[in-house]
Amino acid sequence: MTDSISHELLERAKRVIPGGVNSPVRAFRSVGGEPVFVREAHGATLVGADGREYVDYVGSWGPMILGHAHPEVVKAVQDAAVRGTSYGAPTEGEIALGELIAELVPSMPMSRLTSSGTEAVMGALRLARGATGRDIVVKCDGGYHGGADYLLVAAGSGAATLGEPDSAGIPRAIAATTAVVPYNDVPALEALFAERGAEIAAVIFEPVAGNMGCVPPEQAWLDALRKLTREHGALLVCDEVMTGFRVGLGGAQARYGIEPDLTCLGKIVGGGLPVGAYGGSAELMNQVAPMGPVYQAGTLSGNPLAVAAGMKTLELLRAPDVYERLEVIGAKLQTILEEEAAGAGVPLTVQRVGAMLTPFFTDAPVRNFEDSSSCDHAAFRRWHAALLEAGVHWPPSPYEAGFLSLAHDDDAMAKTRAAVKAGFLAASQRD
Ligand code: KE4
Asked: What are phi and psi of 287, to 5 degrees?
């Protein structure tokens, strides 16, 4: 049990919320045990309901790259709140965020804000289908792009973690509009386009996979994605909800030189408040209502508090050397994991891109969802439980990535090394 107060809160929560959580992965179902109910968080530290402190690597699943409760972000939200929390009418702040997105992500000269990554992805793919007049969307096995019906097909993240790659409630006719290929698998992509290229509206992919664990893209894969979509008149949709502003100020597309037709953002772009965005050329985006026939809307889209948090977060990420510092911090954690696993004789492959990484309990590289699913998840479970016991809050799934922030200082790393040492000792002792 995590702590008695969290346990009591979980029992109370389960009476009014499915599983006691508002998002399945938070329930710890794939690692066992019970979640920590959070009282507050600051920097790299999470404070549980009983007051116990943890070094946090969930980071709200990516948004908290500056660290929790950054004082300048908090102030930006407070200053916005006293002017009103939502208007349902346009504001100058939304223009400023759209202009900043266009500056930082040149493939998005025009964008539409939403309240989640799921909505951003839904908007982008509806636009792709509307613009091409085609129905088929291609995704990767183990790729996760939020909760749209047609994307919960061989999904990663929560669905895979729960061992149910296909969700109940998805009509067969809807699932049939989605084709699935393994990540990093060029022959499979070529075969699919050879067979169905004329039907394909878009390929959506994570430019660094983060929902099968952290799996970097191979260059041949990136080249094939762009070449085949262009050849067959399909759109390339880059889902940067997780990687946007995480693996570089311009996202993964800047890091790897990807030229997408549409990009989806989320998480960091809202600085911890609900913001998603999708965007691309004006030619494409002006097909979205009210300018064109593709409808998409949202009561709280562009919410002034969320926009304030996002703007301040992106402004702070523009400071000099931010991503060099994040690279150093990420490398430090990777070294700790590799050294302590070796010391305990535990086979481990750490895959990292900047400030996101995953420890895979295997001695082989992980190139796709099948590789990720073949890792020793029982060892991960023992490792995760020992870390929590030792005061480190790691994402409760072997299919997720750990997220670092600028606040993960040497003190956090020292605490992490001690916890990780205990974790690999536990992992080495079979059930
Ligand atoms: P949201 O609707 O949860 O804001 O974004 C969906 C989404 C879209 N695309 C990618 C690449 C994503 O990683 C996500 C959401 N990520 C998960 C964590 N892997 C969110 C955590 C959760 O579901 O609670």
From this structure: -95, 0
Can you tell me whether residue 173 is helix, strand or coil?
A: helix
Q: Is the shortest distance between the CB of 416 and ligand 1 below 6 Å?
A: no
Domains along the chain with CATH numbers: 4-69+320-427 (3.90.1150.10), 71-317 (3.40.640.10)
Provide mean pLDDT across the span 54-64. 98
Give catalytic status of residue 239 as yes or no: yes
Token readout for 148 is: 């749209």
CB 169 within 8 Å of CB 103:
no
User: What sign does the dihedral 397-400-405-408 (CA atoms) show?
Assistant: positive
Q: Which two tokens stand for residue 64?
A: 């908290």
Q: Residue 229: which pLDDT band, with cuts at 50, 70 and 90? A: very high
Q: How many CB atoms lie within 10 A of CB 410?
A: 9
pLDDT tens per residue across span 262-280: 999 999 999 999 999 999 9
pLDDT in tens, 64-102: 999 999 999 999 999 999 999 999 999 999 999 999 999
Q: How far is the CA of 155 from the centre of ligand 1 (A)?
A: 11
Reference 59, options 324, 350, 404, 331; nearest CA is 404
144 belongs to the catalytic site: yes
